Amino acid sequence: MTTIVHDTTEAVCLSSEYNLYLKPIAKITISVALPQLKLPGKSISNWEVMERVKAMVAPEQFSALRISKSTMDFIRFEGEVENKTVVKSLLSRLDVKCIKLSGFTDVLKVRAVENKVDFPTRHDWDSFFRDAKDMNETLPGERPDTIHLEGLPCRWFSQKDSPYPDRPSEEVLTAVFQAFGKVRHVDIPMLDPYREEMLDKNFNTFSFGGHLNFEAYVQYQEYGGFTKAMDTLRSMKLMLKGDDGKAVACNIKVSFDTSKHLSELALKRRSMERLKLQELERQREEQKRREKEEEERRKEEERYDGRQKRNRKLEQEEEEKERRKEERLRKREQKLREREERRNLKKVRRQQEEEQKKLQMKIAMEERRLLLAQRNLESIRLIAELLARAKVRHARQKEELARLQQLEACRRKQEEELRRVEVEKERALELQRREKELREKLLGNMLKKSSGKTTRSAGTQGQRSLTKNKKSLFKSKINSTDSTETTYVSGPCMCKACKWLQSILRFGFTYLFLYISYC
């Protein structure tokens, strides 16, 4: 698995030609002790604990942080950082610290230690080869001189101009690991197409697009090159820096070979196995070629037999065609005879049908003439009935029109009478209004004259009573004049003014107008 590298300050150059570097592995193991869960159904989120751990190391960051183990008692994280210089700082921020989670009263204790990489030491390989009874330290491959590498990316060790960028190259592998010492031999099992068919069938051979990583064996000529390579690769991961300055790294597994993979005996055995497999492959190819030739010969014989069969079939088909042709001619002649007979029968039948049709047409013409005569008679009767109804309807319409005209004349007379009555009513109302105005004017003038002719010797009290009596008399006169009948007011006052007023009321409005003009 490859990861992006942002800080390459601690990288050590492995091969400048292929931009390969070695970068130290800086890993931390973090253990978080979990409290006892007292409430049923309540749980602690691993993701929340991981976020709290990330917050504790801020502003520093983990390049990778994953859960390596999770139980009811603790959660173990494995974190990786960019540089080893940051490890001590992170340990001081995490070790013997506490985490408080929301919803829990108990705190979570944190322990952090630097992760030790599982890598073989010099004591391991020296003791292994010293104690192994089937090893001869004087022979290459049976002594500590071979490195077993796993997890190498295929694209990083391929030829630059190779048409297969996913296929690693032994030349590139030799050039890269030549930096630690002179290489005797290298082996990439996935490049050997016969490796799966050999005795040890646990190798992955090369297939286009099939694998991203590969394993390899590198054998050094001297023990110093082997030890230098093992010491240099200890706690390191492989890094590739691109031309644009971006870098990616991947973890590789490095160990010393314990299977005598590159020993002389193993190489000879694989060579013999390869030769046997090549011979078997050649035999298979020969067998396939013979089978192919046999198949082609058989197909040729089948084609020849097929041609013979086709020829016989064609002859049979020709004979069958001739027989069918004769049969068709015979059937055609028979059909012609039958057709001629049918034609004669049709002709006789057609003549009979034509005569029958003529007779039916005559009958139909007579029936149609009779039907037309009946229809003409019915139409004449219908027209006469319609004309009679139209005359009656016309007379009714005339009567209705005369009645409507009479009603219209009566309505007009009534309207004229109503208008005349309205006019007379308005005229009478106008005369009454004018009469009332004249009476009031006349009454005022008479009161003025009567007040001037009375004697001044009478007292103020008698004059007031007389004036009151005259006013009441005149008011009664006016009220009596407004009614339908003319009545005469009788009273104790018989003065000349009152007599004049009575005469005026008796003889009508003509004298009233004359009196007004006189006054």
TrEMBL record:
<feature type="region of interest" description="Disordered">
    <location>
        <begin position="281"/>
        <end position="333"/>
    </location>
</feature>
<feature type="compositionally biased region" description="Basic and acidic residues">
    <location>
        <begin position="321"/>
        <end position="333"/>
    </location>
</feature>
<dbReference type="InterPro" id="IPR056852">
    <property type="entry name" value="AK17A/B"/>
</dbReference>
<protein>
    <submittedName>
        <fullName>A kinase (PRKA) anchor protein 17A</fullName>
    </submittedName>
</protein>
<dbReference type="Pfam" id="PF25015">
    <property type="entry name" value="RBD_AKAP-17A"/>
</dbReference>
<feature type="compositionally biased region" description="Basic and acidic residues">
    <location>
        <begin position="281"/>
        <end position="308"/>
    </location>
</feature>
